[in-house]
Design a protein that fits this description.
single chain; about 210 residues; mainly beta; 1 helix; about 5% helix; about 40% strand
Length: about 210
């Protein structure tokens, strides 16, 4: 990720007047357009999160989002982190590089229970596409950690569990249900709009797939 010339930077903050807590911090850039498709303005910071939200009363950090010239991106950890305002448990982590969900050796999106911190769902991505070679790319767990549902993807292509295990020469399982349908989730707002499914687990907290950052 290269630096860009002739760029202006700014930081804006919001402060609780009663206690002096800085509860919002945002770092942005403005740059002349140098080539087609290049972002000319947006969030950016090289030495920390470009967006930080804190509890205005306690100062506890709730959300952190790392951007590099307008794209969600971080090479040494999760690019987006969200904490529950009451328990401060990390409820969601998103790993991304250059605006694409991406992680090697682990899930790129993780959702956790706000009280116990247990993992509710995992989503594996490689360079923006759902991908996992040694198991399901999308997994939902129940409150005991048992796998409830799974989707199998390799480089963005979906397989049934039987197709996947035959392709990968893995032992067959028959304890999971395929598959999720399309959903979209903003990495900043955390809101979700999911297509209805015939079979769902209402208590399971899930992270979506096929997302645009």
């Amino acid at each position: 990720m290269r630096e860009r010339p002739h760029v202006e930077f700014e930081m804006t903050t919001r402060t609780n007047a009663d206690n002096g807590v800085v509860f919002s911090e945002q770092h942005r850039f403005i740059a002349p357009k140098s080539k087609e498709g290049e972002i000319t303005a947006g969030h950016h910071r090289t030495n920390g999160p470009a967006i930080v939200y804190r509890n205005p009363d306690t100062g506890d950090t709730l959300d952190e989002h790392f951007f590099f010239y307008g794209r969600l991106s971080r090479v040494d950890g999760p690019a987006s982190i969200k904490r529950d305002p009451r328990t401060l448990v990390v409820t969601q982590e998103d790993f991304a590089i250059d605006g694409r969900y991406h992680r090697i050796g682990g899930p790129a999106r993780i959702a956790r229970d706000a009280v116990s911190g247990r993992v509710c769902s995992e989503a594996y991505y490689f360079n923006g596409k759902p991908h996992r070679e040694d198991g399901p790319a999308f997994v939902v767990f129940d409150e005991h950690g048992k796998m409830l549902r799974a989707d199998f993807f390799i480089h963005g292509r979906e397989f049934t569990e039987q197709e996947f295990r035959k392709r990968q020469l893995l032992p067959e399982r028959s304890t999971v249900v395929n598959s999720w349908r399309e959903s979209t989730t903003s990495p900043i707002s955390g809101g979700a709009s999911e297509a209805r499914r015939a079979r769902r687990v209402p208590s399971a907290k899930t992270v979506g797939r096929d997302q645009k950052l």
